[in-house]
Amino acid sequence: MHYDPKTIEPKWQRRWEDEKTFRAADKSAKPKYYALEMFPYPSGSGLHVGHLKNYVPMDAFCRYQSMNGYNVLHPMGWDAFGQPAENAAIQTGRNPRDLVPVYAANYRRTLKLAGCSYDWDREINSSDPGYYRWTQWFFLLLHQRGLAYRATAPINWCPSCKTGLANEEVKEGRCWRCDSPVEKRPMPQWFFRITAYADRLLNDLDALDWSEGMKEMQRDWIGRSEGATVKFVIRNSKFEVEVFTTRPDTLFGATFMVLAPEHPLVGAITTAAQRGAVEAYVKKAQGEAEIDRLNAERTKTGVFTGASAVNPVDGREVPVWIADYVMMGYGTGAIMCVPGHDARDFEFARKFGLPIVQVVSRDGSRYELAEAEPGEGIAVNSGQYDGLTTAEFKKKITAWLEAEGIGKRTVNYRIRDWLISRQRYWGAPIPIVHCPKCGEVPVPEHDLPVLLPDVRNYQPSGTGESPLASIPEFVHTQCPDCGGPAKRETDTMGGYACSSWYFFRFIDPANDKAFAGRDKLDHWMPVDFYTGGIEHARSHLLYSRFWTKVLFDAGYVGFQEPFKILKNQGSLLAYTPGRKPFAGEDAGTEGGDEKTLDWILLKPHELGKFPQNQVVWRWARMSKSKGNVVTPEQIAEKYGIDSLRVYEMFMAPFEDDVQWSEEGIHGSHRFVCRAWRWLAAAAAQFDPEWRTHLPAEMPTEVRAVRRKLHQTIRKVGHDIKGFQFNTAIAALMELCNAVHEYNQPREDGQGPAPDRAVVSEIAECMTLLLAPFTPHMADELWSTLGKPGTTYHAQWPAHDESVAAVNEITLVVQVNGKLRDRITVPANTVNKELERIALESNKIKEAIKSSTLVKVLVVKGKLVNIVVSR
RNA sequence: GCCGGGGUGGCGGAACUGGUAGACGCAAGGGACUUAAAAUCCCUCGUUCCCAACGGGACGUGUCGGUUCGAUUCCGACCCCCGGCACCA
User: Fold this and answer.
1) CA distance linking residue A660 with residue A664, whole number of Å
2) pLDDT at A596
3) Fewer CB within 10 A of the end CB, N or C, for chain A?
4) Which domains does chain A have, with CATH numbers?
5) What pairing do the DSSP bridges indicate for beta strands A563-568 and A432-435?
6) How buried is residue A327: exposed, middle or buried, by Cβ count under 10 Å (0-12/13-18/19+)?
7) Is the CB of A730 under 7 A from strand B?
8) Which of A165, A164, A56, A171 shows the shortest CA–CA distance to A117?
């Protein structure tokens, strides 16, 4: 029977679809398992083999779980709102409303082609009114709980896209889409108060089964730091400036202060003499692009305000400066400067001739500071506190500050509130009405959804307002409270709002009474296994965790963390042509460190025209925009999807980046063909009653191949559970090789003929072991064996520990830790016997003949190490 | 600079809890089959040295050092690569 993937693959895909094989039942006696991949934005370029590096392994995992008796929920949907869809729509001149279903259909087609086991009855689309109605409901929930507020804040304004960007959409001061430098613009905006949950988001990380790297990234992002806020009185004024410091123990060394240029008190405290210089500096700081300000390399600048404050611990006068190295967005926007023990303050003091005082010493003595010493130590020059360690000093001074009412213990966070407003068309409208009498009024729940109007012009207004602002029918409405004329909020919600709860919707996708029914939530949630790109390490995962905690607090769910296990897939790199920049060509800069790009991508149409000897090839992330994609269709055409699936999982561990090369796929394809050939032949003489026909006594060869089978069953299950698909496939290849050898015709007449019951056992088990990896082939073989249904609902084979057990081991004999002999011995040989056997070996006798025996170490079942001296 | 991950043959990668380094595969070379090619099957395949051969020795997991009977694995210092953060007070 010839292996013909082009026939069997479509055949089984059709059957799975017709029979709804992958439907997850809400009521089942089986334990539930919720497996989820981050839902994608369906782009016009479709899926390539790189995307499958995430979807295929998870699919294999789900099939394994199903075969192990779990009721598996494995859904797929579309993250359809947001800037990429809107930008694509602007480019093609079509409404995203029309574009998204076309793109989604293409994604769905490719995922089905790849044999992925999704329950398509649960497909969701975040731009569907039936979906975003609940996104709006979440907004109201947050609003009602005081977690949504409006504030005027500078937005990240991209002059090229003519739109606002979220903080995480700004990469090193540049727009993540078009790379233009980002400017600041003040706008009234909506925020979610994620900072109120900072501590819980931080503490609950500990219990999660996520990679340490991922958790560290979240911890860094939350950025908790303990310290104190201290009030400094401005001399000859009614003002005081509050600072945050992690080192209140260095207060005696605070010789000046610096405020951020945007600090609200700057205008009030600046003296007439300094006003001109200060205003000029503030203006310059505002006009500067964020990218320049973020550059840590540049030298410190600043201006004296003319004002001075009083150091509360010793009454000394400290001049107040402004400088752009202090950020308004962190802490209080003002710092006390301790040049002796902070590198930035040190540099600033040196440059402007400000005094540097040592207040921390490595050994308790005083010495000249050649540079800032930020470490902990013993206090000096600190009055009565001299001699205290940093930790003791902190405790005492904080207590004193609190007693005097000058300061208090404070925990500060780096994380900022979540800016949700987008001045864009393609998002869920924010369900708020602005009434001249009643103020901000939430749209009543029964009036949801606030429908996104169908408009002709959804291009950015360019004024900073959403395109919705220019649609009178949308804007003008009645106040839900007083019935008077009012205006709708025209901002829409950023895409992260949709993706912060979509995993709940899969559980109950058609529910029009709630975002999901409580009984179903209790049954399915939380997500047991979640995979996705590392790029969502912070935003998406933090926001989802935040919303889940809000739901918990509001009594809607009974758990606090949405994703139990998380793994990040590596990306697929493609060998990509590029060139060196031409002489004098501005290759652009990357990041704030002025690193010059030394490689420019060549688009496919440029490649032909470019001199071949000047083309520089590099590994770059596979993406349509780079023109370096390979599609699953291309590969399936040549080798079949099952071979591609095997290759995607075999080439590297799930979390590693992989350099795509088509050469390696030969090996995977060869393996699939070999397995097919053997299994198809075995199926022809299959004995369904093999269990009762297994002979009681078996020749060595038969026992060996059965041992290999049962070891493989054990290993493959273990590896799939650990998401280690590459080694699972390697084990299957070994089994295939062993079976092949066992089945060789024995010309020399040695060894027994293959046993029919054993061959049947192997055929049945191996078909099932292959099912997660090559489901089409497995199902075809399964029916050839005369089995009903699909492998998806079959039982994963159990291994017999006594069959898998080895009866002989290779004893390794070392002399002084060096390998000197290998001896085959019965597996149950006791240590004393092992030692005797080792010492009797001729090779060992030879190796130790002119030495004195010192001692012998025996590791049970493994090795003997003989220590000798010469 | 800080945080996280990593560095193993020509290549992708494997190695349980400190115990045979290089599983499995790719590529390469040799052979069988074939009119021929493809496919398939068999053999070799870390470096180096000794041997006619059978065999055997030394070295070898980024570098240097340490712990240990024994280190890819543990500890210390350093180098390099990837990802993230970055004047965070």
Assistant:
1) 9
2) 43
3) C
4) 22-129+500-568 (3.40.50.620), 225-412 (3.90.740.10), 646-804 (1.10.730.10), 808-869 (3.10.20.590)
5) unpaired
6) middle
7) yes
8) A56
Per-residue pLDDT tens over the stretch A363-374: 888 998 888 888
Write the pLDDT tens digit of every residue in A546-557: 999 999 999 999
- Residues 343-372 of chain A in contact with strand B via CB under 7 angstroms: 344
Q: What is the mean pLDDT of residues A413-439?
A: 92
The maximal CA–CA distance of chain A, rounded, in angstroms, is 109
The reply to whether A689 has its C-beta less than 7 Å from any atom of strand B is: no
Q: What whole-number percentage of chain A has pLDDT above 70?
A: 93
Of these ranges, A79-88, A611-620, A660-669, the one predicted with the greatest mean pLDDT is A660-669
A225 nearest nucleotide via C1' and CA = B88
- How many Cβ atoms are within 10 Å of A354's Cβ, its own excluded? 18
ipTM (interface pTM): 0.94
Question: Measured at the alpha carbon of residue A577, what is the angle toward residues A572 and A581, in degrees to the nearest 5?
Answer: 125
Token digits of residue A43: 């782009």
> Which chain B positions have some atom within 7 A of a protein CB?
3-5, 12-15, 19-21, 23-27, 39-42, 56-58, 69-71, 82-89
Q: Considering only CA atoms, which of A694, A672, A676, A683 is closest in space to residue A764?
A: A683
Residue A295 has which token pair?
A: 């550059």
Candidates A433, A432, A425, A477; CA nearest to A452 is: A425
pLDDT interval class at A329 (50, 70, 90): confident
A508-540: pLDDT as tens digits: 999 999 999 999 999 999 999 999 988 887 889
